[in-house]
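Late entry, written up from scratch paper. The run itself happened at the end of the previous shift, but nothing got recorded in the book at the time, so transcribing now.
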Amino acid sequence: MKNRISITVSDIRGAKHYSVSAFLKKFVLLVLAVSLFMSLLVVLGFIWTYQQYEQIKYQQYQSESAYLARMAQYQVQRDRIAEQKQQLLYELSTTERQVVFLDETLRSLEDLVGSPHGQDEYPIEERVKLLQLSALEKQFLLQALPTGRPVSNFQGVSSGYGWRQHPVRGTREFHSGIDYRGSRGDGVIATADGIVEYASYNKGSGYGNLIILSHAFGFRTFYAHLDTMNVRAGQYVHSGDLIGTIGNTGVSTGPHLHYEVTFIQRKLDPAPFVEWNLENYENIFEQVEGVPWGSLVQAVHQQVQKTERLLSQKGFESEAN
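Output as recorded:
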Protein backbone atom coordinates (compact mmCIF):
# COMPACT_ATOMS: atom_id res chain seq x y z
CA MET A 1 0.00 0.00 0.00
CA LYS A 2 3.02 2.26 0.14
CA ASN A 3 2.94 3.03 -3.56
CA ARG A 4 -0.78 3.63 -3.70
CA ILE A 5 -2.93 6.56 -2.84
CA SER A 6 -6.44 6.18 -1.48
CA ILE A 7 -9.08 8.68 -2.58
CA THR A 8 -12.43 8.70 -0.78
CA VAL A 9 -15.47 10.28 -2.43
CA SER A 10 -18.51 10.77 -0.18
CA ASP A 11 -22.09 11.68 -1.08
CA ILE A 12 -25.59 11.07 0.39
CA ARG A 13 -25.53 7.53 -0.65
CA GLY A 14 -22.34 6.76 1.16
CA ALA A 15 -18.57 6.86 0.65
CA LYS A 16 -16.53 5.26 -2.06
CA HIS A 17 -12.84 4.57 -1.84
CA TYR A 18 -10.45 4.66 -4.81
CA SER A 19 -6.82 3.69 -4.86
CA VAL A 20 -4.30 5.48 -7.14
CA SER A 21 -0.85 4.27 -7.77
CA ALA A 22 2.27 6.47 -7.15
CA PHE A 23 2.96 6.79 -10.88
CA LEU A 24 -0.45 8.13 -11.46
CA LYS A 25 0.12 10.43 -8.54
CA LYS A 26 3.22 11.83 -10.19
CA PHE A 27 1.39 12.16 -13.47
CA VAL A 28 -1.41 14.09 -11.87
CA LEU A 29 1.07 16.36 -10.13
CA LEU A 30 2.88 16.86 -13.41
CA VAL A 31 -0.38 17.73 -15.13
CA LEU A 32 -1.22 20.14 -12.36
CA ALA A 33 2.22 21.72 -12.59
CA VAL A 34 1.97 22.01 -16.36
CA SER A 35 -1.50 23.49 -15.99
CA LEU A 36 -0.22 26.02 -13.48
CA PHE A 37 2.73 26.84 -15.74
CA MET A 38 0.47 27.26 -18.75
CA SER A 39 -1.88 29.38 -16.70
CA LEU A 40 1.06 31.50 -15.65
CA LEU A 41 2.16 31.79 -19.26
CA VAL A 42 -1.36 32.78 -20.26
CA VAL A 43 -1.46 35.40 -17.52
CA LEU A 44 1.97 36.72 -18.46
CA GLY A 45 0.99 36.69 -22.13
CA PHE A 46 -2.17 38.57 -21.32
CA ILE A 47 -0.22 41.12 -19.30
CA TRP A 48 2.34 41.53 -22.12
CA THR A 49 -0.42 41.77 -24.72
CA TYR A 50 -2.24 44.36 -22.63
CA GLN A 51 0.93 46.38 -22.22
CA GLN A 52 1.55 46.20 -25.96
CA TYR A 53 -2.03 47.27 -26.56
CA GLU A 54 -1.67 50.19 -24.18
CA GLN A 55 1.61 51.19 -25.81
CA ILE A 56 0.11 51.00 -29.29
CA LYS A 57 -2.91 52.93 -28.06
CA TYR A 58 -0.63 55.59 -26.54
CA GLN A 59 1.41 55.80 -29.73
CA GLN A 60 -1.80 56.11 -31.71
CA TYR A 61 -2.94 58.86 -29.35
CA GLN A 62 0.36 60.66 -29.83
CA SER A 63 0.10 60.27 -33.60
CA GLU A 64 -3.47 61.56 -33.59
CA SER A 65 -2.47 64.47 -31.34
CA ALA A 66 0.46 65.32 -33.62
CA TYR A 67 -1.81 65.01 -36.65
CA LEU A 68 -4.42 67.29 -35.10
CA ALA A 69 -1.69 69.76 -34.13
CA ARG A 70 -0.36 69.73 -37.69
CA MET A 71 -3.89 70.15 -39.02
CA ALA A 72 -4.43 73.10 -36.68
CA GLN A 73 -1.11 74.60 -37.82
CA TYR A 74 -2.02 74.01 -41.45
CA GLN A 75 -5.37 75.68 -40.84
CA VAL A 76 -3.64 78.70 -39.30
CA GLN A 77 -1.31 78.83 -42.29
CA ARG A 78 -4.24 78.49 -44.68
CA ASP A 79 -6.05 81.31 -42.90
CA ARG A 80 -2.91 83.44 -43.04
CA ILE A 81 -2.43 82.63 -46.72
CA ALA A 82 -6.09 83.45 -47.36
CA GLU A 83 -5.64 86.81 -45.60
CA GLN A 84 -2.47 87.49 -47.58
CA LYS A 85 -4.29 86.54 -50.76
CA GLN A 86 -7.09 88.97 -49.96
CA GLN A 87 -4.54 91.67 -49.15
CA LEU A 88 -2.67 91.00 -52.40
CA LEU A 89 -5.92 91.07 -54.36
CA TYR A 90 -6.82 94.37 -52.73
CA GLU A 91 -3.36 95.79 -53.45
CA LEU A 92 -3.57 94.49 -57.02
CA SER A 93 -6.97 96.10 -57.47
CA THR A 94 -5.65 99.34 -55.98
CA THR A 95 -2.58 99.20 -58.21
CA GLU A 96 -4.72 98.57 -61.28
CA ARG A 97 -6.88 101.58 -60.42
CA GLN A 98 -3.75 103.66 -59.88
CA VAL A 99 -2.34 102.50 -63.22
CA VAL A 100 -5.60 103.40 -64.96
CA PHE A 101 -5.63 106.78 -63.21
CA LEU A 102 -1.97 107.33 -64.09
CA ASP A 103 -2.62 106.38 -67.71
CA GLU A 104 -5.58 108.78 -67.90
CA THR A 105 -3.52 111.50 -66.23
CA LEU A 106 -0.66 110.88 -68.64
CA ARG A 107 -3.07 111.08 -71.57
CA SER A 108 -4.39 114.40 -70.27
CA LEU A 109 -0.89 115.74 -69.74
CA GLU A 110 0.22 114.47 -73.14
CA ASP A 111 -2.74 116.22 -74.73
CA LEU A 112 -1.98 119.37 -72.74
CA VAL A 113 1.73 119.34 -73.52
CA GLY A 114 1.12 118.19 -77.07
CA SER A 115 3.18 115.01 -77.02
CA PRO A 116 3.05 112.95 -80.23
CA HIS A 117 0.23 110.42 -80.44
CA GLY A 118 0.83 106.68 -80.58
CA GLN A 119 2.80 106.45 -77.33
CA ASP A 120 0.24 104.27 -75.52
CA GLU A 121 2.22 101.11 -76.28
CA TYR A 122 5.31 102.52 -74.55
CA PRO A 123 6.01 101.62 -70.91
CA ILE A 124 4.74 104.19 -68.44
CA GLU A 125 8.31 105.09 -67.43
CA GLU A 126 9.16 105.87 -71.05
CA ARG A 127 5.96 107.87 -71.52
CA VAL A 128 6.72 109.90 -68.38
CA LYS A 129 10.24 110.56 -69.64
CA LEU A 130 8.97 111.68 -73.06
CA LEU A 131 6.34 113.82 -71.36
CA GLN A 132 8.96 115.41 -69.14
CA LEU A 133 11.18 116.18 -72.12
CA SER A 134 8.28 117.61 -74.12
CA ALA A 135 7.10 119.71 -71.16
CA LEU A 136 10.67 120.83 -70.48
CA GLU A 137 11.13 121.94 -74.07
CA LYS A 138 7.91 123.95 -74.04
CA GLN A 139 8.56 125.41 -70.61
CA PHE A 140 12.04 126.38 -71.71
CA LEU A 141 10.69 128.19 -74.77
CA LEU A 142 7.93 129.86 -72.76
CA GLN A 143 10.55 131.06 -70.28
CA ALA A 144 13.02 132.20 -72.93
CA LEU A 145 10.57 134.07 -75.19
CA PRO A 146 8.24 136.93 -74.19
CA THR A 147 4.96 135.72 -72.67
CA GLY A 148 2.26 137.34 -70.56
CA ARG A 149 1.41 140.97 -69.81
CA PRO A 150 4.21 143.44 -69.07
CA VAL A 151 2.19 145.29 -66.41
CA SER A 152 1.54 144.27 -62.82
CA ASN A 153 -1.80 146.13 -62.66
CA PHE A 154 -3.74 145.51 -65.86
CA GLN A 155 -6.22 148.32 -66.60
CA GLY A 156 -6.94 147.56 -70.23
CA VAL A 157 -5.46 148.37 -73.64
CA SER A 158 -5.76 151.85 -75.12
CA SER A 159 -4.23 151.05 -78.50
CA GLY A 160 -3.38 147.79 -80.24
CA TYR A 161 -0.88 146.70 -82.86
CA GLY A 162 -1.56 147.98 -86.39
CA TRP A 163 -2.58 151.07 -88.32
CA ARG A 164 -4.12 153.96 -86.36
CA GLN A 165 -4.38 157.74 -86.15
CA HIS A 166 -1.55 159.01 -83.96
CA PRO A 167 -3.03 160.59 -80.80
CA VAL A 168 -0.49 163.46 -80.78
CA ARG A 169 0.44 164.09 -84.42
CA GLY A 170 -2.99 163.20 -85.80
CA THR A 171 -1.50 161.35 -88.79
CA ARG A 172 -2.24 157.78 -89.86
CA GLU A 173 0.71 155.72 -88.71
CA PHE A 174 1.50 152.10 -88.03
CA HIS A 175 1.51 151.36 -84.30
CA SER A 176 4.23 148.78 -83.70
CA GLY A 177 3.17 147.68 -80.23
CA ILE A 178 0.44 147.66 -77.59
CA ASP A 179 -0.37 150.59 -75.28
CA TYR A 180 -1.45 149.54 -71.79
CA ARG A 181 -3.47 151.93 -69.66
CA GLY A 182 -2.13 152.55 -66.21
CA SER A 183 -1.40 154.97 -63.44
CA ARG A 184 1.92 156.61 -62.85
CA GLY A 185 4.03 154.35 -60.67
CA ASP A 186 2.32 151.08 -61.64
CA GLY A 187 4.82 148.25 -62.04
CA VAL A 188 6.32 147.20 -65.37
CA ILE A 189 7.66 143.64 -65.47
CA ALA A 190 9.97 141.69 -67.76
CA THR A 191 8.10 139.19 -69.92
CA ALA A 192 11.08 136.85 -70.39
CA ASP A 193 14.57 136.15 -69.12
CA GLY A 194 17.12 138.39 -70.77
CA ILE A 195 19.84 141.03 -70.70
CA VAL A 196 19.15 144.75 -70.36
CA GLU A 197 20.36 146.08 -73.70
CA TYR A 198 19.27 149.68 -73.14
CA ALA A 199 17.93 151.62 -70.16
CA SER A 200 17.87 155.39 -70.67
CA TYR A 201 15.91 158.33 -71.99
CA ASN A 202 15.48 157.97 -75.77
CA LYS A 203 14.79 161.42 -77.14
CA GLY A 204 14.75 160.87 -80.91
CA SER A 205 12.15 158.08 -80.97
CA GLY A 206 9.60 159.75 -78.74
CA TYR A 207 9.73 156.72 -76.41
CA GLY A 208 10.98 158.77 -73.47
CA ASN A 209 12.42 156.58 -70.76
CA LEU A 210 12.98 153.30 -72.57
CA ILE A 211 14.14 149.84 -71.54
CA ILE A 212 15.10 147.28 -74.18
CA LEU A 213 15.59 143.66 -73.12
CA SER A 214 17.48 141.21 -75.31
CA HIS A 215 16.18 137.65 -75.10
CA ALA A 216 17.19 134.28 -76.53
CA PHE A 217 17.00 133.39 -80.23
CA GLY A 218 17.03 137.00 -81.48
CA PHE A 219 13.92 138.32 -79.67
CA ARG A 220 13.76 141.71 -77.95
CA THR A 221 11.10 143.59 -75.96
CA PHE A 222 10.64 147.38 -75.62
CA TYR A 223 9.11 149.17 -72.61
CA ALA A 224 8.54 152.88 -73.34
CA HIS A 225 7.28 156.10 -71.67
CA LEU A 226 8.48 154.86 -68.27
CA ASP A 227 8.49 157.01 -65.18
CA THR A 228 11.32 155.17 -63.43
CA MET A 229 13.80 152.53 -64.55
CA ASN A 230 14.97 149.98 -61.98
CA VAL A 231 17.62 148.28 -64.14
CA ARG A 232 20.76 149.29 -65.99
CA ALA A 233 22.36 148.19 -69.24
CA GLY A 234 24.14 144.84 -69.00
CA GLN A 235 22.05 143.60 -66.11
CA TYR A 236 20.45 140.14 -66.29
CA VAL A 237 16.74 139.94 -65.48
CA HIS A 238 14.31 137.08 -64.97
CA SER A 239 10.81 136.77 -66.31
CA GLY A 240 8.48 138.56 -63.88
CA ASP A 241 11.13 140.92 -62.47
CA LEU A 242 10.06 144.51 -61.80
CA ILE A 243 12.13 146.62 -64.20
CA GLY A 244 10.38 150.01 -63.99
CA THR A 245 7.13 151.92 -63.53
CA ILE A 246 4.52 153.35 -65.88
CA GLY A 247 5.02 157.01 -66.76
CA ASN A 248 4.28 159.76 -69.26
CA THR A 249 7.71 160.52 -70.72
CA GLY A 250 8.42 161.14 -74.40
CA VAL A 251 5.64 161.68 -76.94
CA SER A 252 2.66 160.70 -74.82
CA THR A 253 -0.81 161.98 -73.95
CA GLY A 254 -0.94 160.39 -70.49
CA PRO A 255 0.50 157.66 -68.27
CA HIS A 256 0.69 154.37 -70.15
CA LEU A 257 3.14 151.66 -71.23
CA HIS A 258 4.08 151.17 -74.86
CA TYR A 259 5.16 147.53 -75.27
CA GLU A 260 6.84 146.01 -78.34
CA VAL A 261 8.18 142.58 -79.35
CA THR A 262 10.74 142.26 -82.15
CA PHE A 263 12.59 139.43 -83.87
CA ILE A 264 15.83 140.33 -85.70
CA GLN A 265 14.72 143.99 -86.05
CA ARG A 266 11.28 142.87 -87.26
CA LYS A 267 8.40 144.26 -85.21
CA LEU A 268 5.83 141.61 -84.27
CA ASP A 269 2.31 141.78 -82.92
CA PRO A 270 2.74 141.39 -79.13
CA ALA A 271 -0.82 140.09 -78.60
CA PRO A 272 -0.11 136.40 -79.43
CA PHE A 273 2.90 136.50 -77.10
CA VAL A 274 0.83 138.05 -74.32
CA GLU A 275 -1.74 135.24 -74.58
CA TRP A 276 0.83 132.48 -75.14
CA ASN A 277 0.88 129.66 -72.58
CA LEU A 278 1.10 125.89 -72.33
CA GLU A 279 -2.56 125.33 -73.19
CA ASN A 280 -2.44 127.22 -76.51
CA TYR A 281 1.23 126.51 -77.16
CA GLU A 282 0.81 125.63 -80.85
CA ASN A 283 -1.29 128.68 -81.74
CA ILE A 284 1.55 131.18 -81.88
CA PHE A 285 3.27 129.23 -84.67
CA GLU A 286 0.33 130.07 -86.95
CA GLN A 287 -0.48 133.53 -85.58
CA VAL A 288 3.01 135.03 -85.77
CA GLU A 289 4.69 135.03 -89.17
CA GLY A 290 8.26 135.95 -89.96
CA VAL A 291 9.78 133.69 -87.29
CA PRO A 292 11.38 130.36 -88.33
CA TRP A 293 9.48 128.45 -85.66
CA GLY A 294 10.36 125.02 -87.05
CA SER A 295 14.12 125.45 -86.77
CA LEU A 296 13.74 127.27 -83.45
CA VAL A 297 11.73 124.43 -81.89
CA GLN A 298 14.17 121.89 -83.32
CA ALA A 299 17.10 123.78 -81.79
CA VAL A 300 15.38 123.79 -78.39
CA HIS A 301 14.59 120.08 -78.74
CA GLN A 302 18.23 119.25 -79.47
CA GLN A 303 19.47 121.44 -76.62
CA VAL A 304 17.09 119.85 -74.10
CA GLN A 305 18.02 116.34 -75.23
CA LYS A 306 21.71 117.19 -74.98
CA THR A 307 21.21 118.56 -71.47
CA GLU A 308 19.21 115.47 -70.48
CA ARG A 309 21.96 113.16 -71.75
CA LEU A 310 24.61 115.11 -69.84
CA LEU A 311 22.56 114.96 -66.64
CA SER A 312 21.94 111.23 -67.09
CA GLN A 313 25.65 110.63 -67.70
CA LYS A 314 26.59 112.59 -64.57
CA GLY A 315 24.00 110.68 -62.55
CA PHE A 316 25.39 107.36 -63.82
CA GLU A 317 28.95 108.40 -62.98
CA SER A 318 27.86 109.48 -59.48
CA GLU A 319 26.23 106.10 -58.86
CA ALA A 320 29.33 104.30 -60.15
CA ASN A 321 31.54 106.25 -57.76
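Residues 4-73 form one domain.
(Scratch paper discarded after transcription.)
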